[in-house]
Design a protein that fits this description.
Elements: E1 4-13, H1 26-29, H2 51-67, E2 71-77, E3 95-96, E4 101-109, E5 114-116, E6 120-132, E7 138-152, E8 159-168, E9 173-183, E10 189-198
Parallel strand pairs: 3-10
Antiparallel strand pairs: 1-8, 2-4, 4-8, 5-6, 6-7, 6-9, 9-10
């Protein structure tokens, strides 16, 4: 079977404007795996919080983030492309007509940041994809479908990806769309499967 694939990818960011924490060691921000303590305790919430307290919470959140497995917090077939982080409309069905576009909304989680200079942080994510049968036989795909990087004063965590595929000439049946996410900072990868059905 030969599949004609129309491709479109877009990665958008929604960045908060919260305060930045002080720079730390390279191994911390790289996202590289390291031994973790038994429990990570968040800072106590003061009665009258200050920006310094917010900085402390930001540092604790960033440390927790880097201990997460790299992957996707959300991976959804959607009815339209998102315009902002969290602006997704889940598709009610994973059944598509031949030639109908498959739009996927993905929120990567657990990626790292590479320090740039003294006050910048760079993230980078690449995406490959495959179309497989439910048994795992690969029918087609593309490496380097998306390659994105961002340098920011903030360690951006509210990152989302719109990924659109149009499959022409594909027979009716059940399939799996598999995106493989790669974190440039840590070298970690994660496979994100999305079953779907083509039915005329």
């Amino acid at each position: 079977m030969r599949i004609g694939i129309g491709l479109a990818a877009a990665m958008l960011l929604w960045c908060g404007t919260g305060p930045r924490a002080a720079p730390a060691a390279d191994d911390f921000w790289s996202g590289a795996a390291k031994p973790a303590p038994a429990k990570l305790e968040p800072p106590a919430v003061p009665a009258r919080p200050t920006l310094a307290d917010l900085d402390a919470f930001e540092r604790a959140t960033a440390e927790l983030w880097l201990r997460l497995p790299f992957g996707a917090r959300r991976n959804l077939l959607v009815s339209r492309k998102a315009e902002a982080f969290g602006d997704y409309e889940a598709r009610p069905s994973s059944v598509f007509k031949p030639g109908e576009a498959l739009i996927t909304y993905v929120e990567p989680v657990g990626y790292g940041w590479v320090p740039v200079g003294t006050d910048l942080h760079r993230l980078g994510v690449t995406v490959d994809f495959e179309i497989t049968t439910p048994a795992g036989k690969v029918l087609g795909g593309q490496n380097g479908f998306l390659d994105y990087g961002l340098t920011s004063h903030a360690r951006v965590r509210e990152l989302f990806i719109n990924l659109t595929l149009t499959l022409d000439g594909i027979a009716e049946g059940d399939y799996v769309l598999v995106f493989t996410l790669h974190d440039k900072a840590s070298g970690r990868s994660a496979r994100v499967p999305q079953p779907f059905t083509i039915k005329g």
